[in-house]
Every structure is written in structure tokens, then in C-alpha cells.
Amino acid sequence: MPGVDVWLFVGLAAASFLTTFLGMVTGAAGGLLLLAILATVFPPVVLVPLHTAVQLGGNIGRVMMMHEYVLRPILLPFVVGSVIGGIAGAQIFVSLPTRLLQGIIASFILFALWVPKVGSFGPERGRFAMVGFLSTFIGVFVSATGTLVAPFLNSASPDRRNYVATFGAVMAIAHTAKMFAFMLAGVAIGVYAPLMAAMIATMVLATWLGRKVLDRVPEKQFRVVLKVILSLLALRLLWVAADVGSWF
Questions:
Q1: Beta-carbon contacts of residue 126 (< 8 Å; ≥ 6 apart)
Q2: Residue 200 — pLDDT band, cuts 50, 70, 90?
Q3: Which of 14, 77, 156, 168 is most buried, by CB atoms within 10 Å?
Q4: What is the pTM (predicted TM-score) of this model?
């Protein structure tokens, strides 16, 4: 595998475990943290499809372990939105600057989290069709869009286990649509198959362990931690989008 030695192989497999465990217990940030780690190693042309493939495998494992908690009524509209978003993402050249896109996403997350009832606006099917479209379309270019989906799932989920299981299901749908989009675009990452297999394996192990911990986490505490983490991630996106650091 180009640029991957034994130590990097082991380190990335361990990173997959740790970020997945964090994502299971807190409900957020796992996929974004893994993307940030991979971004220090791989160029974007490899980074996004590699991250997508690993997340797809891990989310399938999560759904298999927690299928009884998945909120099934929202899956079909999310599938419809994801298919349209994936096709559009593969065909349309995105002219928006990356920073502007980051700023829009961050503002949207904060708005959905902190403005009452925004995360549950309109009919549920239409809402999740829109979320499916946006998360998959944007995900073709920036990969980790779980923070965009999270506020809406948080509003729709009566229990933390419903949230975690359904998050895995909808992200598996989005990642599947993105993989087809990459195939249409001729992107090939087969040379990294051993690394992806190892990262998916450690991700599944972390999912199993994280579920044991999740069952013991108080519902109120889970919701508070989720909201804080999503807010911090959104604020970080705004910071990066505004390039505030260049002023200091």
C-alpha cells in the first residue's frame, strides 16, 4: 500500500477503534475525528473514498448489532434523498469555496440544535428526504457529514439507543450512495483493501464494546454531551471557515 508502513497500519487501526468508541458513547464526532486523522496521511483523492468505505463497513456492523432500535419509518425517505444527492454530487462540479460550505454547514447545525423545534420541522418523511439529499451530496466532497444529520435524529429519537442505531443506518445509506458515486467517477482504492479491512474490524469491536457502555449511560447526560460536542464541532467549522487564525 503506497505510503503505509506497519506502524502506520497499526496506528490507523487503533484510531478507528478509539474514534468509533467515542462516537458510540457520545453519539457524535467519531467519523469527523477519524477523517481528521486520515487527512494527515492521505491526499483528498484517497482520503474521502477511503473514509467513506471504512465508515460504511463500521456502520453496517452497528446496525447489525442494534437493528431492533432503528427507527425504520425514516429510512425510505432518507434513501430517496441520498440516491438523488449521490447522483447530483457525481455529476455536478461544486463551485462554492470550501470555507463558504463549511460556514453554511456549521451555521445550520447550530441553528438546528439551539432553535426550538427546528430539528423537527415539517412532516418527518419530507424532513429526512431533505437531510438524506444534503448529507450525501455534500458528503461526496467533504465525507464526514454526520454532524449535519445528528440534530434531526436527536429530535426524532425517543431513546439514546434509537439515536445511535438509526444514525448508523442512515449513515450506511449515505456512504453506500457515495461509494456508487465514486465508482461512477472512476475512483479506485482497492490497493488499500487490507487497511480498510483492519480498520473496519477494529471499528466493529469498538461498536460492540461501546454498546455495552451506552446501556449504562443516563439518557439526560447523553443528550447534554451530544449537544455540547455537536456545538463545539460546529463552532470549530465556523472558525476554520472564517480563517480567524490568520488574523493572529
A1: 77
A2: very high
A3: 168
A4: 0.73
